[in-house]
Amino acid sequence: MRKASQFYRDKLALNGGYVYYDSLDLQQRWGEGKASPDQIWVQPPGTPTVGMAYLKAYQATGDQFYLDAATDAALALIYGQLKSGG
After folding, report:
1. Contact call for residues 72 and 78 (beta carbons, < 8 A)
2. Is pLDDT above 70 for 86?
3. Could you please report the per-residue DSSP string of the chain?
4. Other C-beta atoms within 10 Å of 67: how many?
5. What's the gap between Cα 82 and its chain centre?
6. How far apart are CA 35 and CA 45, in angstroms?
7. Rounded distance, CA 57 to CA 74, Å?
8. Is-contact 11 26, C-beta < 8 A?
9. How many Å apart are CA 58 and CA 34, to the nearest integer?
10. How large is the average pLDDT for residues 59-68?
């Protein structure tokens, strides 16, 4: 699980954020539509779902790697939050 999570974090994350789908060759990224290289998705099953999976992995293993990855996902969501709430 750690090796797969490391790949996901190192190769698919964008500043801690994720989209819904990455193609097998990593050339295409999708959310509700085609995502640009600098976009993440802030609704499930994008960044929030991946962050929760990392958090559950941390709870199960106690491995700090997973808590750090969950924190990265949380920070990506916080970064995109507007003061107005939208």
Report:
1. no
2. no
3. -HHHHHHIIIII-BTTB--SEE-TTS--EESSSBPPTT----STTSHHHHHHHHHHHHHHH--HHHHHHHHHHHHHHHHT--TT--
4. 16
5. 19
6. 14
7. 15
8. yes
9. 31
10. 99
Residue type at 71 in one-letter notation:
T
For the stretch 8-29, what's the b/e string if a residue is b when 16 or more beta carbons lie within 10 angstroms of its beta carbon? Answer: bbeeebbebbbbbebeeeeeeb
Q: Side chain identity at 32, as an amino acid letter? A: E
Letter for the amino acid at 54?
Y
Return d(Cα 51, Cα 74) in angstroms, integer: 7
* Strand-strand pairing, 29-30 and 21-22: antiparallel
pLDDT score for 81 = 81
Predicted TM-score (pTM) above 0.70: yes
Q: State the sign of the Cα–Cα–Cα–Cα dihedral 12, 38, 21, 72.
A: positive
